[in-house]
Description:
Radius of gyration: 33 Å
Shape: elongated
Strand content: 5-15%
Largest sheet: 3 strands, antiparallel
Helix content: 40-55%
Number of helices: 19
Number of strands: 16
Amino acid sequence: MKIRTRYAPSPTGRMHVGNLRTALYEYLIARHEDGEFILRIEDTDQERFFEGALEIIYRTMEETGLDYDEGPDKPGDCGPYVQSERVEAGIYMEYAKQLVEKGEAYYCFCTKERLESLKQEVAGKEIVVYDKHCLYLSKEEVEANLASGMPYVIRQNIPNEGTTTFVDDIYGAITVENSELDDMILIKSDGYPTYNFANVVDDHLMGITHVVRGNEYLSSTPKYIRLYDAFGWEPPVFVHLPLITDEEHHKLSKRSGHSSFEDLVEQGFLPEAIVNFIALLGWSPEGNEELFNLQQLIEAFDYKRVNKSPAVFDMVKLRWMNGEYIKNLAFDEYKKYAASYVKQIFAKEEDGLCINADGVKFSEAALDKIMDLVKTRIEIFPDIPEKIDFLNQLPEYDVAMYTHKKMKTNSENSLEVLKETLPLLEAQEDYSVDALHDLISDYIAKKEVKNGLVLWPLRTAVSGKQSTPGGAFEIMEILGKEESLRRIKVGIEMLEAANA
RNA sequence: GGCUCGUUGGUCAAGUGGUUAAGACGCCGCCCUCUCAAGGCGGAAUCAGGAGUUCAAUUCUCCUACGAGCUGCCA
C-alpha cells in the first residue's frame, strides 16, 4: 500500500520548529517510499485563529521545499482540506452521530457551573474528571433537551474497565487503563469538532497510513484507538517523535530565539540549513555524513532510526551548519543574501555606488571582493557588518597595536616600514592584490625580513583593527590607492607622535 | 497527585551480551599563515544510581533518582 502522510497545522501564528520538524519527517517518510504527502489545515479553534497564519504556512512549506500532493490550494480526492470547510459540509457531526447511535458517544448538557463543581485540586493543579453524568440521561430527556435548543457537546464514551493498547513504531507497545481515560469531547458546543475527533475522522477519510506527530500525543493516543475501534476502522501506523527542547531542557519558548522558522530566517539562517539541522534532531543517518540537502534526506531517511529521547536545540551547532551552507553557496546565490549586509555599513549610496564616511567610492567589483572575503568567515549574514565596518571609516585605534610580539614589530620598526613603503605605494598604479604582492614582496626580499614585520604594520595602518577578513593586500585593493595611502599616512603620524 | 514516555561526553548522537564505546558541534593544543577565518593534524570529555539475570552487562529485568509530556469545549 502506498504511504500517505499529512501535515496538519493549526493556523495560529508562525511555524514553530517543532512543528516544522514534524512536517519534515512526515514529508520524508512519504517521499522516501514514493508515497503521498498532504497538507490539511486544522482551524477548529476559532478563538486562536490568527489572520495571516495560513499564508505563513504556505510560505514556509514553499521556502523549505516541502511540496505536498494535496492541500487547500492543491485539490485532491479527499477535499476539502480545511477543517472549517469540512464542518460546513457536516462531516464531523455526521460521524459523531454515528457514534452516538452505537452508544460509543453521548450528548452532554452539563453547564459550566456543573463542570466547575467537578474540579479538584491535586498537587497544585486543577483537574476535572467528567463523571459521565449525561450518559445516564434517558432518550426522552436527550430528545427534549435537544428540541429545546439547550447547548450541548458530544462526548466519547469510554468504559471504566479494561485496558487499551496500541503499538507505536518508535516507542513500542503502550497500554493504559481505560479508567484513566476521560470521556473527551468530540463535538464542541459551537458545533466544531475538537482536534482529537477531527483528526481521527480526517485521517481515516483521507487515507492516512502513517500518523506522525509529537510525543505530547503519546498518552492520549489510546483514546484515538478507541475511536478507530468504535468506528470499526483500521488504525494507522503511529510514529511519535521525541520533543525538541531549549538549552535548559524545557520546551522551546519565544525567549530562546529559536522558536519559529521565520525567526530563524530573520536572524540570518538559510532555510536549507535549518531543514538540515532539524532533520538531525531526533533522527540520525546510518553513516557519519551530516550535511544533507532535501533530496539526500529523502534518500537517507529511514524513520525506524528516529530516537526516543528529547533533543536540545543547539544554536551553536546550527550556526556552524549555516556557515557550512554559506561556504557552499554559489557566489551569485550568496550575493543575494550578503549584499544588503555589506551595503549597510556605508554612509550612503549614490548612483549604485557605496560611499563611505570619508567620501571613498566603492564599485560593484569592490563590493564583490568584500563579500568574497567574508564568505568563509561568517556563520550567519548579520555577522558581516562588524567584520567590515573599518571600510566605512578608519577606526580610532591605539598605536600599541603596531607592537606585536610574534610579528616582531614595535613602534620604531613599524614607522620605518611605513615610511619606506609609502613612496613605493605612491609610485604604484596597479592596486590589485597580485601587483601589490609583487611590489611588497620585492621590498621584503631586499630588506631581508619576515613577511610579518612588514605586513603587520601595513594591515594595521590600513584597517585600524586587530583582526580583519583578508590581509593588507586585499584591504588595499578594496580601499584603492588614494584611501590606502591616506590611512598609511595617518599611521605614520600616529607613530611619529608616539615615538617623539 | 495519577498516567505515559525518556536518561550514552557540555550539546547532537552511533553502537553492542565480550568494542581501545564511532562521528559531529563546541572547547584546548599544534601546523599553515601579515591578523581573523578556512583547511590539516591531535587532545580532553560519556554509558544517571542501585540491585538482579549471566562466565560476562552500557546493552536484558526490576527499583530509585532526575527530566519531560498528558490530565482543556488548545492543538
